[in-house]
Amino acid sequence: MRGLTDSGRGTLQAAYTAMAVLAALALFVSACGTGGTGARDEGPAHADSVMGAAASPTPSPSKTTHVDAVKLVKDDPMVSAEVKRDLKPCVADEYPIDVSYGELTGGYSDDIVVNVLTCGDAVGVGSYVYREQGGRYENVFRTEEPPVYAEIDRGDLVVTKQVYEKNDPMSSPSGETVTTYIWASGHFVRRYNTRNDYSNAVGGDASPSS
Fold first, then answer.
1. For the region Disordered, what residue ranges are annotated (predicted)?
2. Among 43, 171, 176, 208, which lies 20 to 30 A Cα-Cα from 147?
3. Based on the domain organization, do 163 and 79 belong to the same domain?
């Protein structure tokens, strides 16, 4: 600059140098406050945060409530006295009874299908469906025309009955009828009925029933 002496230039240069040092010091202090990178240092995520994000929702409790099926049948006023009388242990405390749980009526709890059998040849003498209502199970279906067996098939109730012609031995029925029921308007309604003749070794004719 014109008009400045050597000593004036030296003083001005010293001032510039001092300002540069102060600016560098300020930048250094700022970097230290942000983890040394000049930007916010996030750091690794906490383990509990990662686990919380990856954790799957708690599964809802099962709808199935296992019950004493023998007591259920014996206390049921809709079960015949004959079936109750013959419902005794076959070996030790093993009763001739088959129990399955599943959704048939769309209730809060699983429905219960109970088949009562004979001890010797496991012939079904009674089939029943129980639905939970108000904290207790109520009989919503029964059939006591042996040989009979009920089961749950893809949300439908399927009842199979053996068909005997005259002189058929118990071990060799002539065929069977398979009836499918659906739950509608508070009760089971027959939907399909199929007849299978064993002697012909062919499937029966399935037709909807109203």
1. 38-65
2. 208
3. yes
Instruction: Give tens-digit pLDDT for 72-106.
Output: 999 999 999 999 999 999 999 999 999 999 999 99
Q: Is residue 61 part of a domain?
A: no
CB 146 within 8 A of CB 85: no
Establish if 33 belongs to a structural domain: yes
Task: Examine the domain organization and report whether 118 and 199 are in the same domain.
Answer: yes
SS3 content of the chain, % helix, strand, coil (to 5): 25, 35, 45
Tell me whether strands 124-133 and 136-143 are parallel, antiparallel or unpaired: antiparallel
Distances (CA, A) of 46 to 50, 55, 65: 7, 14, 40
The count of structural domains within the chain is 2
Single out the residue of 92, 93, 133 nearest to residue 112, CA to CA. 133
Tokens 């008009």, located at residue = 3
Q: How many C-beta neighbours within 10 Å does residue 127 have?
A: 25
pLDDT of 33 higher than 60: no
Q: Write out the residue range of the structural domain in which residue 30 sits.
A: 6-54
Is residue 150 in some structural domain? yes
Question: Is the distance from CB of 98 to CB of 141 less than 8 angstroms?
Answer: no
Query: Of the candidates 137, 117, 118, which has an alpha carbon nearest to the alpha carbon of residue 127?
Result: 117
